[in-house]
Structures are given as C-alpha cells and as structure tokens.
Specification:
This protein is 36% helix and 15% strand. The chain is an alpha/beta fold.
C-alpha cells in the first residue's frame, strides 16, 4: 500500500533560497562569493548583540522563554505600545504562515499583489483559501485601487508588501491610510514592512501611527535585514492583542529560540547601528543605480536594500549564470514573477564593484 500525502503539497510553489547550494555561510563571509541574492545585511551584528548571544549560550540546556517576554517588552517600549500587541516569530515568514492558519480556511480569500514576496503563494496552498493576485501598476508599485476593488465578503487576509519584494518600490503612509479607509473591518490587512527602514519617503514609524485608527491592521517587521540577524530568524508583528493571541495559538511552542530572543532584545536598543547600516546602504544604492544607468539598464525606484533590474535584451539565465561563474550570486527574476529581470542586493562596496564589473563584461 502506497503512502498518500495531502493534496496541498502539490500546490506548494517550493521556496528557492538565495544562498548557492553547498555554499557555507562562513565561505560567503570570507569573500569566497559576493552574496547579493538574499537581501541580507553585509554587516555583522552590533558587538553588544554578539555579546548578548554569547551570554545566552550558557543556558542552552533550557528551553527558551515561550512568551519571549523580554523581546516583546523591548519592542513594546521601542514602539510605545503594549507587549500584548506584539507577536514574535521564527522570522516574519512564520507569522505570515500562522496568520493564514488562524484566519483562513476553504472558502476564504487571500489577496495580494504580484510580483511580491515569494512566501505569499504558500498561504492559500496551506489553507485551501482562494488566491487573488492583483498585478502591479506601472512603475512596479502596488495598485491599491485595484486591490480594494477585489475585496469581497470572503476576503479574510490582504497583504501589502511595502517596500515591495522583489520590485523595491514603496508607497507613502498617507496612501496606505487612504487604502485602509476603503477596506472593510472583517479583512485583516498585513502591512509587510521587512525593508521599511531603507525607504526615504516617510519616517519608518509613520505607518505604526495607523494602528490606532485601523484595528484590523497588522504591521509586520523583521530583524533579518537592517539589524543583521538573518541567521537567527526573528520577526515580529504589531497589531491587536486578538491577532497576537490567534497566531500564538496555531504555532508550535518555543518557535523563537533563546539566541534569537537575546539578539533581538539587545539589537532593538541600538538605533545608532541601524542608522549606520541604512545610510551606508542608501549610499551604495545611489552609486549602484547610477552605474546601472550608465550601462543602459533600467531599475525600479528602489526604496529597499536591493535593485530590481530590467535586463532589456540581455538573457536572464545567461546573466545569472555568468555572474555565478564570476562568484557573484544574484536572484533570477522569473521565479520571483518578473521574467527578464534580476534582483540584486546592495552589499559592501567591494561586492557591488564585483557585481558591476561582472555585469558590464556580460553585457559587452
């Protein structure tokens, strides 16, 4: 008798990591490859964060705090809210998956723009909900008007990725507020802001002010990007206490490990470090995009720590393979919903130079 697996497995798109197969993180850190495929920070964690991680290793024979008390309290203090409104997870991905499990079932609808974060197609596949994808507007930005028009009585979850991954575009908080006004209160709106610190349209905290006006709004963020903690996987959401309780109810216990909790709780204290990372990234963003324009390539208006590059007449697969041969890893656009594009993270100046040199050679 053959083992039968759940039919939903066939609907799973399959996540493609940006780290090259068999490439150890320490080899990347040593400069063996310019890892520009995963939108990570090129800078290691703040020294105080590393000290907090080392201290936490002495208690590895104990389970982590199941409530992530210190981390949630520090986040609540940082954002002037209550700990009961802060959910934490094993990366923001876990909170997205938990939100879908808690809110959706067959007959419900999940609505999001496309191309957007490649984790979103997992949510309807897991829950049996109907997937509604809305194409991006010209300029590779969310078409909020078209998204609002797709909302029905069955819509349970609506996701806005802002800045958007993979296109790096951003909509100001005033436009998000006007959009939320149009969304009925039965719809949970998740504002996925993994890259919010890198945009220059608003104060990064501007959208958090909207939580007081829209009880159905959830702001989702992560320590993986500007805090330099991608390897520890810790994300968080700020919304209603009922949302936090719902996602906690459907997740496994102890999902955020002790080292991640310690790192996040310390990292949130170092806004000066975040400012350094953001300013350094924006400087490289301007430099790289100017060089790309000189090569005759168009990019979206990046407000993140990566570029979405239209390759024009160049063949996407050949460019990705040619850069890989030069030990530069980037993401192909086709799996991300944008054929004929590549997504390239801004790394160190040396890594970015290797990318630009390699791309110039390939285009020639």
């Amino acid at each position: 008798m053959t083992v039968t697996f759940a039919e939903k497995l066939a609907r799973m798109p399959g996540y493609q990591a940006g780290v090259p197969t068999g490439q150890a993180p320490e080899a990347i850190a040593a400069g063996g490859i310019a890892q520009l495929a995963s939108n990570e920070s090129p800078f290691p964690p703040h020294p105080k964060v590393i000290e907090a991680i080392v201290r936490a290793t002495g208690a590895m024979h104990r389970y982590p705090d199941p409530d992530a008390t210190l981390l949630r309290r520090r986040l609540a203090e940082r954002y002037e809210t209550e700990p009961g409104r802060v959910a934490v997870g094993n990366g923001s991905c876990e909170i997205l998956l938990a939100a879908a499990e808690a809110l959706c079932e067959p007959g419900a609808e999940i609505l999001y723009a496309w191309p957007a974060f490649s984790m979103y197609p997992y949510l309807p596949a897991l829950t049996g909900a109907r997937e509604i994808r809305v194409p991006l507007a010209p300029g590779d930005v969310h078409d909020l008007e078209a998204m609002a028009a797709e909302v029905t009585a069955a819509t349970q979850l609506l996701i806005v990725c802002n800045p958007n991954n993979p296109t790096a575009t951003h909509l100001p908080a005033v436009e998000i507020a006007a959009f939320c006004e149009r969304i009925p209160p039965h719809v949970t709106v998740i504002l996925d802001e993994a890259y919010i610190e890198f945009q220059t349209n608003d104060d990064p905290d501007a959208t958090l002010d909207l939580l007081a006006d829209f009880p159905n709004l959830v702001v989702l963020r992560t320590f993986s990007k500007c805090y330099g903690l991608a390897g520890l996987r810790v994300g968080y959401a700020i919304g209603s206490s009922t949302f936090r309780a719902a996602v906690d109810a459907v997740r496994q216990p102890f999902s955020v490990n002790a080292l991640a909790q310690a790192a996040g709780a310390e990292a949130v204290l170092h806004s000066d470090d975040v400012l350094f990372r953001v300013e350094s990234t924006i400087a490289e963003r301007l430099r790289v995009e100017e060089a790309l324009a000189e090569l005759g390539l168009e990019t979206s208006d990046s407000q993140a720590n990566f570029s979405w590059i239209d390759l024009g007449a160049a063949e996407e697969g050949e460019v990705v393979a040619g850069l890989a041969a030069r030990e530069v890893a980037v993401r192909a656009g086709t799996p991300l919903g944008g054929p004929g594009h590549i997504r390239v993270t801004y790394g160190t100046a040396e890594e970015n130079d290797r990318f630009l040199t390699g791309l110039s050679e390939l285009l020639d």
